[in-house]
Amino acid sequence: MTERLPVRRALLSVSDKAGIVEFARFLAARGAEILSTGGTAAAIRAAGIAVKDVSEHTGFPEILDGRVKTLVPGVHGGLLGRRDLPEHAAQMERHAIAPIDLVAVNLYPFEAAVARGAGFDDCIENIDIGGPAMIRSAAKNHAAVVVVTEPSQLAEVTAELEAGGTTLGTRRRLAAAAYARTAAYDAAISAWFAAREGEAFPPRLALSGVLRGTLRYGENPHQRAAFYADGTARPGIATAAQVQGKELSYNNLNDTDAAFECVAEFDRPAIVIVKHANPCGVAEAADLAVAWDLALRCDPVSAFGGIVAANRTLDAAAAERIAAIFTEVVVAPDADEGAKAVFARRKNLRLLLTGGLPDPAAPGLLVRSVAGGFLAQTRDDGRVTENALRTVTRRAPTEREIADLLFAFRVCKHVKSNAIVYARNLATVGIGAGQMNRVESSRIAAWKSEAAAKAAGLDRPLAEGSVVASDAFFPFADGLETAAAAGATAVIQPGGSIRDEEVIAAADRAGLAMVFTGLRHFRH
């Protein structure tokens, strides 16, 4: 068998017909016989290109409303027969099975049907059977058959055929891509069935993604990395258009996702500044420019070189403020022309526009790899409202404190544990993240509020008169006492510690109002 193989007979049957007529014309001009079915055959025939229906080629008609078109020996024998085995050749000749050298198939749009909310019967009819079978047969016999599963592959195959035929290396690579495509297709179908049956964690979980691009490196330069999209429509880094700036890195993408998921929590115009996947400043305000000023004030040192997320269309006023310091990435649902012009002066700044905001309450699955497997959990879609708060101290929080408590607890959900957040007037004034004990996070948040006040030229810590949120219960009173010493007047926490009464008593002694949420927000 020669290294470069010509195509004498090709079967073309595609749902996405991009480029297929031109490809058929190219093959026909080189003397190849074209086999096809249904709409693909009609499109090729309408272009004046000779094409034979598969049913004519095999002598077996389409039946069952087209459910059986290609599931016949005349097709699969032509794909699977080994050209290097005389016994295969003899059997093919005896049964009048002609070899097929190329298959171009892309599948019924099942994923698109699910995405548009199609009904059960419509989704079932969009499950392709004959297509995956042909793809798998052709890919198995890639020593002699070339399989095309994406319109983007047609140009490469055309170039190889112009050079005298397809190479084994190309056929093998296309075979690998073909099996990946059918695996992803089956994964989408199994996930749809599991969701309909209410199975969050089915006995066998299949995951798939489409490569969006390889990255310069991973978290560190010695690590390799890539970005895959999972096909869901959740607005964020996978849906974003990059308007300008340098190539995004692994850390850029990770931090941008963290920032955008956090900013989507808020109803009023909001800004979130993230550094190393942790918020270092968050604020809600009447407009984005004011929100930026308040968010930046929380930790201006950490904000340098950070990621900025907005939950509204960016305008020029907000862009001018953001562009005044070094910023790696800005992400928002949209930006007006004035904002784009401002950012254009910062050539290296990456501007991402997503077209929408993710829904914090929407269900979803989060996956993390571990040695020998992976952990899967549902997304943290918990949200606390005022009605869910339970006052446990003698003093109840004021209306202003309640607004700040709810704000701080939403921020806390996005801070690495152990997490402590001080907030005042819907803006963070101190954030303690990722410490091994809660009292240290509380001390760090208080210290940051003092440092931020000095940077702003204030003579009193920002935490004075603030509220404090904790992502999990205070196991001892010391973390709460640290918050009281920093000037906090009210506390929000899940509750549930065996020492809750001790912590409540400490709050009463300090004159603090404290509410329990019954909801924990660990984040690791």
Task: Give short descriptive properties of this protein.
524 residues; alpha/beta; Rossmann fold; Cytidine Deaminase, domain 2; 3 domains; six-stranded mixed β-sheet; 21 strands; 38% helix; elongated
Overview of the structural elements:
With 524 residues, this protein is an alpha/beta fold. 38% of the residues lie in helices and 19% in strands. The chain has 19 helices and 21 strands. The strands form 5 sheets. Strands 8-13-12-11-9-10 form a 6-stranded mixed sheet, sandwiched between helices. Strands 16-21-20-19-17-18 form a 6-stranded mixed sheet, with helices on both faces. Strand 19 (467-470), helix 18 (478-486) and strand 20 form a beta-alpha-beta unit. Helix 17 runs parallel beside helix 18 (478-486). The protein starts with 8 loop residues before the first strand and ends in an 8-residue tail after the last strand.
Low-confidence stretches: none
Sheet having the most strands: 6 strands, mixed
Number of DSSP-assigned strands:
21
CA-CA gap between termini: 56 Å
Number of domains: 3
Structural class: alpha/beta
- What is the C-level CATH assignment of the largest domain? Alpha Beta
> Order of strands across the widest beta sheet?
8-13-12-11-9-10
Q: How confident is the prediction overall: mean pLDDT?
A: 93
Q: Mind telling me the C-alpha Rg?
A: 30 Å
Relative helix content: 25-40%
Strand content: 15-25%
CATH architecture type of the largest domain? 3-Layer(aba) Sandwich
